């Protein structure tokens, strides 16, 4: 069975955006969370235009190469300007998770309004044997509550943003994690965890 993984660039105080993210404003004042995509000499083999440090490229491409479909929460979709009608990942179909209609979706995007289980099932089908990537703290938290997450990756950037959208939201019970790999790299530390079941 394909895995469900969620990888985000996150500040040390746990934010995946800065203050005032939104359509046309992206990550708000937290754009430095993505600096490590472009501060090295190793081109990504998956994402055109990304040039990372060698250790970051190994981690980033290793994860990106596994993903065959992406489930993004509605805030991620809107704050990313609806991904220009496409997908956040060059090789993966986008499934948008929301409680409401989204009439602006294109034929390259799929909306699911019946919950995280259905969104992940639709993504698994689209992924054709590859893994499912989850984007957004809300989408991740819903999937953790439903027991559907296999791996969580923090690309931890050494900054305290002081505000923004949090990676992890309230959970009804503890979720135990096991560290798989920790990779220090210029401008970021990659922390790869497995969810313990
Ligand atoms: N730093 C990074 O690497 C990174 C990566 C991805 C995204 N981001 C940014 O992080 C922010 C993510 O925002 P976020 O954490 O607030 O949210 P999010 O997960 O992107 O979206 C949350 C929304 O998704 C919908 N949703 C979540 N669970 C659902 C469920 N079980 N059933 C139906 N709908 C459900 C709801 O939309 P409705 O209630 O409105 O329908 C909910 O308000 C965005 O600004 C994005 O640009 C950063």
From TrEMBL:
The Bacterial bifunctional deaminase-reductase C-terminal domain covers which part of the protein?
3-182
One Pfam family, please name it. Answer: RibD_C
Q: Which InterPro entries match?
A: DHFR-like_dom_sf, RibDG_C, Riboflavin_Biosynth_HTPR
Return the Gene3D superfamilies for the record: Dihydrofolate Reductase, subunit A (3.40.430.10)
Name listed for the protein in its UniProt record: Dihydrofolate reductase family protein
